[in-house]
Design a protein that fits this description.
Layout (H helix, E strand, L loop, with lengths): L1 H15 L6 H26 L17 E9 L1 E22 L4 E6 L6 E2 L4 E5 L2 H30 L4 H26 L2 E3 L4 E6 L6 E2 L4 E18 L11 E6 L4 E9 L9 E8 L11 E16 L4 E3 L5 E6 L5 E5 L1 E6 L2 E5 L4 E7 L10 E5 L5
Parallel strand pairs: 1-20
Antiparallel strand pairs: 1-19, 2-9, 2-13, 3-5, 3-8, 4-7, 5-6, 7-9, 9-12, 10-11, 10-13, 11-12, 13-18, 14-15, 15-16, 15-19, 17-18
Length: 378
């Protein structure tokens, strides 16, 4: 019974702690509901009553023309030049050779010495030549006696015609040997074929030299001949008699004249050989050095530009961009008429035009731009 009483008491206590009849819990539910309604009302107020302080939407305007700098250029008359690199060659360059065999008796010149035409460079020992001359004289005398005997016997009817003919042939041969012996005595030496400088000499007294042996080299660099190569496309611009300016690598500048233009192209380079003669009376300019040749080939009207303003179009053509009177970009194909250290002369532009000098890489043909005059010093 006691246990039943305690169970009944516990049941009564659980019913007393139930929240369904608690007034505080009911109040919390109402507060939470009110807050939820307030939040929803606040969030929806922006849709029902839009704010008048909303920022306006910014729309993108039309692109503005690109700013470029231009410089007005007027064409001028300029001399066209053909330029080429060349090499200075001596006017004459020849080997010194011994015409006869013999022993060198004396050497009269040294390497580097200037000699005149016909000067004796070295002389052979004349002992053998004199002996050969003496033998030739004796042979001639004997041939003359034999001819006289043959003629006497022929007149008496003892000798035949053939013997007389053979005697005459022997006399002619003896006369020829005597002539050669005399020349060897007189010309028993090596002589300079022309006036020039001994560039090489390999001779010593007492040395035996065979006929035809090269013993030295003589060079004449007064005047000089500068050889250049002319491309196919420039061949019609170069001809004999044109004046030329030649700048040697030593710093010397001389005037010259075109004396030869080839008519057959080199198989390897397809260029034509041309020669420019330059006076060098003092011999100060050595042969074999490099030289730059400039040949005036006519006049043309061209603009002087800096290479920096030149560009390529979509077809890869070389040209310059200009601005027309209505601020439209125009691309003009050009040709280089002349180049120099500080710029180039080009053809293909109007006589007077505004050339884009700054910003040409950012604009295209046909585009509208906003040009302004180039500042001084640019």
């Amino acid at each position: 019974m006691a246990m039943k009483a305690r169970a009944a008491e516990n049941t009564t206590q659980r019913e007393t702690l139930s929240f369904e009849t608690d007034q505080g819990a009911s109040r919390s539910v109402w507060i939470a509901g009110a807050l939820l309604v307030a939040i929803v009302a606040w969030m929806g107020s922006g849709l029902i009553f839009p704010s008048d302080t909303s920022e306006p939407i910014t729309r993108r305007g039309e692109p503005q023309p690109v700013s470029v700098a231009v410089r007005q250029s007027t064409a001028e008359t300029v001399t066209q030049l053909f330029q080429a690199e060349g090499q200075a060659q001596p006017d004459r360059d020849s080997a010194l050779r011994a015409e006869t065999s013999g022993t060198i008796d004396e050497v009269y010149v040294v390497k580097g010495q200037m000699v005149e035409r016909g000067a004796v460079v070295a002389r052979f020992d004349r002992t053998e030549a004199n002996a050969e001359l003496a033998r030739a004289r004796e042979d001639l005398a004997q041939a003359q006696r034999e001819l006289e005997n043959a003629q006497t016997l022929f007149q008496r009817g003892v000798a035949t015609t053939d013997r007389l003919v053979l005697a005459r042939v022997a006399l002619a041969a003896a006369e020829s040997r005597l002539t050669n012996a005399r020349e060897e005595v007189v010309d028993a030496g090596i002589t300079a074929p022309f006036t020039g400088r001994i560039e090489a000499l390999d001779l010593d007294p007492g040395e035996f030299i065979s006929a035809g042996t090269e013993v030295g080299r003589i060079v004449d660099n007064r005047p000089l001949t500068v050889t250049i190569q002319v491309p196919q496309q420039s061949l019609t611009r170069i001809h004999d008699g044109q004046t030329a300016t030649v700048r040697f690598i030593t710093g010397e500048v001389r005037k010259g004249k075109v004396i030869f233009v080839g008519t057959a192209a080199a198989a390897e380079t397809r260029t034509f050989l041309a020669e420019v003669r330059v006076q060098n009376l003092d011999g100060a300019i050595p042969a074999g050095i490099s030289a730059e040749v400039e040949i005036p080939t006519g006049e043309t009207v061209a603009h002087f530009l800096s290479p920096s303003v030149v560009s390529l179009n979509t077809e890869g053509e070389l040209g310059v961009k200009t601005v027309s009177a209505d601020n439209i970009v125009q691309f003009h194909r050009i040709a280089i008429a002349r180049s120099q250290l500080d710029g180039i002369w080009v053809t293909g532009l109007p006589e007077t035009t505004d050339i884009i000098t700054v910003g040409q890489g950012f604009v295209r043909d046909g585009e509208t731009v906003r040009p302004s005059a180039e500042e001084a010093g640019q």
